[in-house]
Write a structure and sequence with these properties.
Blueprint (H helix, E strand, L loop, with lengths): L4 E5 L3 H12 L3 E5 L11 E2 L11 E3 L22 H7 L4 E4 L4 H9 L3 E4 L4 H21 L9 E5 L3 H13 L2 E6 L2 H9 L3 E4 L12 E4 L8 H6 L5 E4 L9 H6 L3 E4 L3 H5 L1 H17 L1
Parallel strand pairs: 1-2, 1-4, 2-3, 4-5, 5-6, 7-8, 7-10, 8-9, 10-11, 11-12
Helix pairs in contact: 1-10, 4-5, 4-10
Length: 285
């Protein structure tokens, strides 16, 4: 019986763990633009994109790109341009993540088969767990106070916001959650958090010890930053551009802590199992 071939291109430590898992599960496994001593000897190290162009499935990094030009390859000295990557793809099913509109346009233009893994509830919802735990870890490591009895606000009530608010409440924090929709605000109140409508956010900011942002849109301008507690820790969980005016925040001395890609940093083995779970769903479809 022919083995299913899967190639991993780029990515952080979670993709090393995924390569191990795929190999252990009997897949014909390739890696390209990712190097680590934990990659099993039986995994094939591709020398070029051409070497993996006929694989059944190709898994890209998370995020797919940081600079909009090249794939995210933190564990390799190789630079892989988005255009070159797409040019070499043909029959493979592409499992990519956090795709920007211009990349989606290029994929569609080439008629490629692909999925954005971060749009799969089966992955994104589970991914919120290591993200939330990582955010709490970062908060504890970068503050002189406990989360217990602290005042925290979570900006956004999506997958990550829901899980993070729940875990902060469990630790004993006084949890506020910002949201736009009245439906979300009603659920926030039902879960025994304090709801904060976006339009009223500014008048509450002075009281928070920790601000966790999950919204990839700038909602905190200079007026919000001026209203913040000067000792607050702001943790950025959202993708670029994030939720705050970074230049003004730096100018005002805000303790700004970027925290992208937390699952791959704080829980790479769990993150790899989540990706594997999603890949199996894709294969069965």
């Amino acid at each position: 019986m022919r083995k299913i071939s899967v190639a991993i291109v780029g990515g952080d430590l979670r993709f090393v763990r995924l390569a191990q898992l795929l190999f252990e599960q009997g897949f014909l496994t390739f890696v390209y633009a990712i190097s680590h001593p934990d990659i099993p000897a039986g995994v094939k190290v591709a020398k070029s994109l051409e070497d993996i162009s006929t694989c059944d499935y190709i898994i890209g990094p998370i995020p797919f790109s940081r600079d909009g030009k090249n794939l995210y390859t933190p564990l390799s000295n190789l630079s892989v341009s988005i255009e070159l990557f797409i040019d070499y793809m043909n029959s493979s099913y592409l499992c990519l993540a956090a795709l920007k509109p211009d990349v989606i346009y290029m994929l569609d233009k080439h008629g490629l088969k692909y999925i954005d893994l971060m749009e799969m509830d089966e992955i994104a919802t589970l991914n919120a767990i290591p993200t939330a735990e990582g955010a709490i870890q970062y908060a504890m490591q970068n503050s002189e106070i406990t989360l217990t009895d602290s005042k925290c606000i979570v900006l956004g009530f999506g997958r990550c916001g829901k899980v993070l608010a729940h875990k902060l409440k469990g630790i004993g924090a006084d949890v506020f959650v910002e949201a736009r929709s009245t439906k979300d605000l009603t659920f926030i109140e039902a879960y025994d958090y304090t709801p904060v409508p976006l339009g009223e956010l500014k008048q509450h900011l002075w009281k928070f010890d920790f601000i966790f942002n999950t919204i990839p849109v700038q909602i905190l301008d200079f007026t919000h930053i001026d209203a913040m507690n000067k000792n607050a820790l702001y943790i950025e969980l959202a993708s670029v551009p994030g939720g705050i005016d970074i230049d003004y925040a730096n100018e005002k001395g805000v303790y700004y802590l970027p925290a992208p890609g937390l699952p791959g940093k704080v829980a790479p083995t769990t993150a790899a199992k989540i990706l594997y779970h999603g890949l199996k769903i894709i294969m069965h479809k």
